[in-house]
Structure prediction request, 355 residues.
Amino acid sequence: MQEEVQQLLEELRHAVTRPWAVMEVCGGQTHAIASLGLEELLPPGLRLIHGPGCPVCVTAVDLIDQAVELSLRPGVVLCSYGDMMRVPGSLGDLFSAKARGGEVLLMYSPLEAVSFAGSHPEAEVVFFAVGFETTAPATALAMQQARALGYSNFSVLCAHLQVPPALEWLMDQDEGRPDAFLAPGHVCAITGEGDYGRLAARYRTPMVVTGFEAPDLLRGILMCVHQLENGECAVRNAYGRYVKPEGNRAAQERMKEVFEPEDRHWRGLGLIPGGGMKLRREWEGMDAALRFGCGKSAHGADEASGCLAGQVLRGLIRPAECPFFGTSCTPLAPMGAPMVSGEGACAAYYRYKRS
Prediction:
C-alpha cells in the first residue's frame, strides 16, 4: 500500500498546475484524511475542504429536542446510536436527559430496537433514526419487521437525510463552492451514481465516488484533478470494488416503500429542499413525532452562541480556525455537533491535529 500511495502522490505532483479545492463530503473520509495526514502530503495549491457529510452533525436541533422530550416521557424508551448522546439541543442532550431519569438505551441497529420492543411489550420503544441513505434501508427493514411481527409499541423518530440535495445547495452558494467533490462511497453503494452524474453535468463540477483508505482517497483526488485540468465534468468511480453504477436496487426499493423526500433543515446549513426523508402516509402510524404529538422547539439557533460549527460544516473555515476549538469546545464539553460525532470534522482535528 505504501508504494501505491507514493506513486499516487507523485502523479498528483505532476498533474496539478494551478490551485484547486476539492471537498470530501463524507465525515468518515474526513477522519481518514486527518488520521493519515494526507493533507500535508498533497502538492502545493491542492486544497481539501471538509464538507457537511456527518449526519449526526447536521441533525436539526428540533429533532434533538424531540428525542430528549420523548426520553423523559413516562413509559417511553428512546433507543439511539451512541454518537447522538452528546449532541446538544436547546433542551440539553440525551446524555443529560438520561441523567435526569430519561429512558435512553444505546443501540447498534434498529433491528436491536425492534427486538427490545418485542421483549418489552409494556414499553413504548422509539428508535431515533439518524443517517444518510446508508442507514435508511436498515430503518425501513426494522419498521417492516416490527409491522410483520405485530409490535404496535415500536415507532421511529425519523431524522434520515439525503446527500445530493445538500450538494446542490452547496453549489448554489456564492461563498466556498469547491471545484470538485469526492462523493461518499458508502452512500453511493446504496444509491448508485445517477444523482451525482446529474449534478456534475448541471453544475459543471467533477464528482468522484471515493472510499476511505489512503489509496482510495488519493485516487479519488487524482481523478478529480485530471478532470479539472482537462476541463471535464462528470461522475467517476474510484471505489468500484464496492460501488456499482446502479447501486443496491433492493435497498433502494426498501427505502422507497417506507420513505419519501421532504424539505429538511440541516443544522449549520439551513432549509434544504428535498434534503430529508419522512415516512410515507401508510407508515405514519409508526411516526413517533405524530404518535406522541412532539412539538417543535421555539429555540431557533443551531448551536451555542458564538459557535462556528455552521461555517465548519460548509467548509468555510477549518476547525482549528474557530476561537473556541480545543478550549471552550472539546469532545467532553462540546459547543457544537461537529465536536461530538465520530464523523465530525472538529472531533477529527481535536484527535489528530492539535499538535
Q: What stands out?
A: The first strand starts at residue 20 and ends at 26. Residues 214-230 form the longest helix (17 residues). Residues 30 and 265 are 22 Å apart (CA to CA). The mean pLDDT is 93.
